[in-house]
Amino acid sequence: MIDKATLKALERNLDAARERLLARDHAGFQRTLQRAQRGGKLDLARLDRDVEQAKLRYENRQRLKPKQIRYPEELPVVQARDELLAAIREHQVVVVCGETGSGKTTQLPKLCIELGRGTRGLIGHTQPRRLAARSVAHRIARELDGNLGDLVGYETRFDRRVSERSMIKLMTDGILLAELGRDHLLNAYDTIIIDEAHERSLNIDFLLGWLKRILPQRPDLKVIVTSATLDPEKLSKHFDDAPMIFVSGRTYPVEQRYRPPADDGDQEGAIASAIDDLWRGRPSGDVLVFLPGEREIGDTARVLRGRFANAEVLPLYSRLAANAQDAVFSPGRQPRIVLATNVAETSVTVPGIRYVVDTGTARINRFAPRTGVQQLQIEPVSQAAANQRAGRCGRLGPGICVRLYAEDDFAARPAFTDPEIRRANLAGVILSMTALGLGDIEHFPWLDAPDHRHVADAYRVLQTVGALDELRELTPLGRELARLPLDPRIARIALAGRGSAAEEMIWVLASAMSVQDPHEVPADAQDSARAKHAQWRHPRSDFLTLLKLWQQWRDWSEQANNRQLRKICREHFVSFLRMEEWEAVYRQVRDLLGGERKARPEANARWTNEKLDELFVPIHEALLAGLIDHIGHKLPEKNEYQGPRNRRFRIHPGSALAKKGPQWLMSAQLAQTSQLFARTNAAIEPDWLERVAPHLVRRMLLHPQWNATRGEVTATEHVSLLGLPLLTRARHYGSTNPVEARAIFIREALVGGAMQRKPAFLDANLKLVESIRDKEAKMRRPDLLAGDDQLAAFYDARLPAEVCAAAHLKNWLRRETGAQQTMTMAESDALRPGANADVESLFPDHLELGGMVLPLSYSHEPGEEHDGVTFHIPLAQVHQLPAERFDWLVPGLRAAKIEALIRSLPQTLRRQLTPAAEYAQALSARLTPDDGALLPAICAALQLMTGLRLAPGDFAPDKLDAYLLPRLQLENEQGAILGVANTLDGLRGRFSGAARTALHQAATRDESLQKWARENISDWDFDDLPDAVPLANGARGYPALSLEGQRIDLRLYESRESADAAHRLGARALLLARLADRRRDLDKSARLKLALLAAPFGLDAARIAGQLAERAAERTLLDDPIRSRADFQAALERRATFSLDAAARLDQLVNWLNAALSVRKALEGFATRWPLAVADMRAQLTSLFADGFVSAIPEANWGRVTIYLRALQVRLERLQNKPQRDEDLTRQVAPFATQLADLSHPARWLLEEWRVALFAQELKAVGRPSPQALKEALAAEQGK
């Protein structure tokens, strides 16, 4: 190990030799000594040899200095040569402020060589543009009588001509910036010239800041900063009051004219008028017009070509094709009007310009940090830029500059254009600084500090692409991105493609995004250009359009030489230079990323449309890696897209996707012009975003709930990216929050029973819970069942912590012996502490009535219709149950009902039965349903207990709560509800026919009952009829003959009453069918005797004969029930009696009709004199002999019909003597006559007896007919 004293001595010797060593060699030796000081090995002999060789290199470089340096005396900078030499010699930094044309760019490097610079390192000379770097290098080399690449060399992005002999190196500022990565202190240089500093690009500002930082560490380094317009004092202060040297330009006086525009906004017209004025009466000269952009140039060109037919109108802008640009720099025979953007301010010099027309505007590229959008807006130019424009017409002689704005406007403008650092995206700068270890951007010595909002957004972009972590530290990916000479977004795309099947395509696209669009659309050939470009257009992706163009370029390159290729490009409106630049960038990216893979054979394979479609997803997923925040979702019913950070934008009209935009979109660039446009777009799917940028995806789980279909707790997952909603879906909640998922699983799936496939324990537990709920409803006590928390605690104490889904539970039950038993509840587990659930005797589940068992159900929902006990009544049994039984309800509700009935009594009665609850309890214990109807039983019991006499009508059952009324629910065989009522009569009336039909259908289906379900009976050829036959569930059916129209059937009836009524008619019809011969005789006789008598009354003799036969059969054949074949035969034996009865009744009818006709004839003579009486008597006759009267007259009244007709004759006789009395009596009868016109009404015959009492008292009415009796009879019938 070398001792410290020796190392100190070596350091002193090295410092002494500094001036005889190249700067880079000296720096290398310093690093060697520093390693030795830290304990590293040091070979002294080798060090001595290396130092000697380094001295030789320095001496050899000294010999490269030209012996003679010539300066063009006409250049203003040469006039200041001595001042410049002195300043450079004496100061580390010098600021040279010289106007365009002063010669500073070409002569300053020569002055440095004259001072001996360039011997310890290169004289680095930066230029803002590649073209300038090459052309200046050519110019200096020629002035030094050398070849390019020898004494003077240059290096640009894709071209390098520098050798070991080079002393001056022209380069773009980006090249010098890239060298900082391997040479922090710029030891390869002994002099740095930063030219055109007034442009204030990001690169220039960064270099100025870095140079300020390293100058103390490089005292031997000289720095010269040149500017045409920049405030020199700012530069001087930046470099600690560095001296400023001012050099004038080679310009003539320029007259400034101000012509503010008219209010009509016609800029093209204002430009034409200004040119008219300039050319009127003055020497001809070319005019340079400054306009803000390509569109304005196209619009103005069309106007000027029409206005100035003898002039040549030429456009000039950066995207213009090379041949069109060349036309601007070539002299023409006609006066020229050059329409240019701000590219003509300083970047290029247009020859022959004598006049300038300045609109005073330019498209300025500004980055908006709030939206992350690059805005290319038209803005007023600064005073410095306006003066630069004016200076373009003072090169050949005195010039005139017409400013199309007011002088006050000019005076109010800022002195200088905002530097790029104040209006650009800083992501690339920050990434470079972080990778190079250059510190925090906000503490960097900038000439102008960047906007903190731009800085924040740049960090956001770098974190978005994964270059920096949340602490703003460089990630491994960020280190790789910094290696690539590309924008961070584009570098991220290139890296994303590495190793994929679409690797080459992605690198081609990354390269394309680093250069200007090669498509050219001249203003005068837009349609032709778009037609040529359409052959590459892809309907879903502008990126694939670029790949198709690339493939076309490769095809052309293989088939044509350079000259031919230029021609092909011109014909297809493609920029040859930009295609070459694109290819050069691609090679650079491929070399940096591809390594040994760059020669793979698939790199040269053709990219067919099928191949592009096959690789659509991997291509665009790689693009998304860098453009992840350049996405958008189409807004409903709009052509707008919603992007991250609440941006809204439209697809640029030039995109293939403009006409029919996809739902989701990715864009290479969002640029603000007239509005925010997305350029170079592609359709994407939202699920790609999750895969590409998981670090940016935000997932929010909301509304966790049990999902029975999936058998797990799911939550609604809202997936968003940079604030933009991507999708909503259900997600297993247990993977995120197992504790809460388990609690929900217990509460919903187990306690709630919401599992589709229930394990045995859960099925048993749920049945237990349901049985307790039934008991609660029965007892009307909602306090038996344990609460959900208690039930959940039961499961929580037994269920393993990891079980939160149905699948987990199934696996645990299968794995753990005895788990089913452990999870099964006893009744005490499901009851509240201290609850008693013994209710079976008070609230039975079934009610047995006469062998029939009715299910009961209970509900405790006060205020609801189904509150209380429900009796489930089968349809077939609705007529077989005792109606009064249901009022008794069930034992557990009986006392409450009796108490409510007592409380419904009138107050005078209610007071005698207090306390009502005690009387109710006593009555409930004393009475049973066997005591008959409830209300009469209560009345009888209370009379015995208290002596109080009550009637059922004293109670008000309609005031009782719903749960104290029987709820009778009628159901069919399938259990479907047919109707609900509080009384059986309410159901019987509505469903009598349905019950009969159901019985018949049941009998038809049941073989044992089919003999009681026959049709078209013609004789008694069936078994004797029992009173009833048993049916299912204790019900009974009642067999009977049934008359269905003209057909006689045998069927079952739902009740004995309905069966008896039907059977009598059916048996009568069957008897008459067997007595057909007797019926024919009767019919013949009736026709002979009644034909003339019946006609005046509209009666049919045959119909009357049939009714007489039925009446005679009722009288003679059906005295006893006919339930057997023997009964039937016995009835037939009485056929003679039947015939005699029928004949006798026929003779009675003949007498009645003769009497009635006599009355009718007599009435005809009184119609006009006593119309009221005549109308009443006619109505009486019509009613007595209405169709069907033979069947309608009750047997008790049959013999009285003769009396009713005689009473009419008596009335007629008395009418003539006492008409007023008849009229008074008629008015008494009239109201009842109207109501009792129908013979079937039971009170109808009471009215006939009253007529006898009123009009023919001597004939003696039967009974005691009166108006009051009639009223009571009518009321009784209405009450039924």
TrEMBL record:
Keyword list, A-Z: ATP-binding, Helicase, Hydrolase, Nucleotide-binding
Enzyme kind, highest EC tier: hydrolase
Pfam families xrefs: DEAD (PF00270), DUF3418 (PF11898), Helicase_C (PF00271), OB_NTP_bind (PF07717), WHD_HA2 (PF04408)
Keyword Hydrolase belongs to the record: yes
All copies of domain Helicase C-terminal, residue ranges: 274-437
Keyword Zinc-finger belongs to the record: no
GO molecular function annotation: ATP binding; hydrolase activity; RNA binding; RNA helicase activity
Domain Helicase ATP-binding stretches: 85-248
EC number: 3.6.4.13
Protein name, as recorded: ATP-dependent RNA helicase HrpA
Annotated organism of origin: Solimonas terrae
Protein encoded by which gene: hrpA
